[in-house]
From TrEMBL:
GO molecular-function terms, A-Z: ceramide kinase activity
Entry-linked SUPFAM superfamilies: NAD kinase/diacylglycerol kinase-like
Every DAGKc domain range: 141-292
Signal peptide from the UniProt entry: none
One Pfam family hit: CERK_C
Alphabetical list of InterPro entries matching this protein: ATP-NAD_kinase_N, CERK_C, CERK_PH, Diacylglycerol_kinase_cat_dom, Lipid_Phosphate_FormReg, NAD/diacylglycerol_kinase_sf
Protein name in UniProt: Ceramide kinase
Superkingdom as given in the UniProt entry: Eukaryota
SMART domains: DAGKc (SM00046)
Xref: PANTHER family: CERAMIDE KINASE, SPHINGOSINE KINASE
GO biological process, one term: ceramide metabolic process
A GO-annotated cellular component: membrane
Amino acid sequence: MTGPAEDTKSQLTLLSSKLLHQHQAVEAALNRHVFVWKEIEEKSQKRSSGISKTSRSHIVQVSEIVGIHKVEDEDHTKSKWDQKKTLQFSQLFPNAFTVFYVKRTKNHRWRCNEATFSCSSAELCEQWIQVTREQLSLLTNRPKRLLVYINPFGGKRRGKRIYEEKVAPVFQQAGISADVIVTERANHARDHLTTEANLQQYDGVVCVGGDGMFSEILHGLVARTQNDNKVDQNRPDAELKPCMLRIGIIPAGSTDCICFATVGTNDPVTSALHIIIGDSQPMDVCSVHHNDVFLRYSVSLLGYGFYGDVLADSEKKRWLGPARYDLSGVKAFLCHNYYKGTVSFLPAEDNLGHPRDKLQCRFGCSICQHKQSSKDKLRETADEETAAEVSSSSWKVICGKFIAINAANMSCACPRSPKGLSPSAHLADGTADLILVRKCSRLDFFRHLLRHTNTDDQFDHSFVEVHRVRKFHFEPLDPQPLLLENQSELPKKPGFCPLGSAQTTCIPSAAHSSWNCDGEILHHAAIQVSVHRQLIRLFARGIEEQQQRV
Ligand SMILES: CCCCCCCCCCCCC/C=C/[C@@H](O)[C@H](CO)NC(=O)CCCCCCCCCCCCCCC
Ligand SMILES: Nc1ncnc2c1ncn2[C@@H]1O[C@H](COP(=O)(O)OP(=O)(O)OP(=O)(O)O)[C@@H](O)[C@H]1O
Ligand SMILES: [Ca+2]
């Protein structure tokens, strides 16, 4: 908090001068928070026209300035054509500087805008550059050195090009240095982070790829932090230590759901700008155990049944790229499998909202800032038997036949479903939304799926229920294959799903489905899950409510 004296100090003008911008005289000023320029109206112009126009002012937050540079004759980050233009400009106006800053455009996309000013002397130009850079150096949340992992095979295989053409030039403008590793195999980034990387020299880790690549960074960083702090990840009740380094995601994958749900778009330049200005978004992480063995962490979707089957089938079609999910999605939809099991869960406290309250997690979300009370903590650490003594609203148990069991730790918004699997789930509240889709007709399930793509409520069905939870367990039942509604039409090959007939059914390849854990298959159906509040931080800020334009 800043007091009145501090406030006055921060508004003190550090520099103010008449400069030339786009052949127009402007009054430019800089204080600790903003850089402002305003067109100066020529007196003679005003008199002759007889109308006094309001002169336009432009305001850029210092926190959103990417960098400031002298207009030099040579700038190798620019194209040949731009270099030629810059050369001509610098001959006409030798004492000019350019300010690069964040500009908000449509659909949460950010761009790096630039404004060039020419000064009356070389000294004044140097002074502007030096004072502005001093202010930028006071912004201690900004990263200076990053470790970047690129998956050259993620999504449409464009990771390397996206980084080189769209991201590296803006990092250079911001004076960020990056050590780049292009991965040579799956789990290369995870293993390097867990055992080899000298993390002390970095201010953050960046992945260029999709959700799978992010998952590697997550596993590497969390494991490294627990190892360094002697925390045993195999203990389901372990209090995990939060990771110090922030993670940046440059989207270049098939779903990019983590980037989309934390930034509002899957655009590489927008992500690069959030990294540069040093944004910070805490995020919950679910730990998944089978008995006392640690399996994986999840930040987006843990899905059994439908999304597990989609993933298992799509893995065989990796060569298809992002389209594999649509094809496997249609196939799983037509198979219409359901699975028996028991779900038990520890509901979250009422003050953390409800999955259907329509309070979406946005920049500065108040639910995510809510501090957990000691009573809540006690309730959370108690096991199923003792929990009943601590609180009346303790573990709940539901048995049934489920088409899908989905735990959304965040909205899971992505281009396929812009509002996501659970539109009101929160990024950093310490809970996940547990969605149970019971056995229903194909048509009803289709209606439910369709609602993920429009504004209708996907939970408003008699066969769907949703709970906000801190922990949950799943235990599959019935080792025998299910779903033999129409025995005479069974295909001969197990796992083969006849397409084109709504009447036909198929044998599930097993009585159990598998879990889709952020796009990775888990090989145990029985799992125990706990949400660890704010275990990691991303270079993001959550989705901004209103588009502010500069
Ligand atoms: C009628 C249209 C309905 C469309 C319904 C779309 C709902 C899409 C919800 C997407 C939720 C994504 C959650 C994110 C999960 C990520 O951690 C993970 C790793 O990247 N991605 C996937 O598992 C990738 C999962 C991708 C799942 C795609 C499912 C597509 C279903 C298509 C069903 C079509 C039925 C058509 C009947 C004729
Ligand atoms: N050099 C590599 N060769 C092969 N696989 C790799 C390599 N580097 C990373 N991987 C693996 O590729 C998998 C998929 O990567 P990524 O997440 O980037 O793309 P995607 O699957 O297309 O996107 P999404 O996860 O968003 O659906 C990851 O699980 C990762 O472990
Ligand atoms: Ca959450």
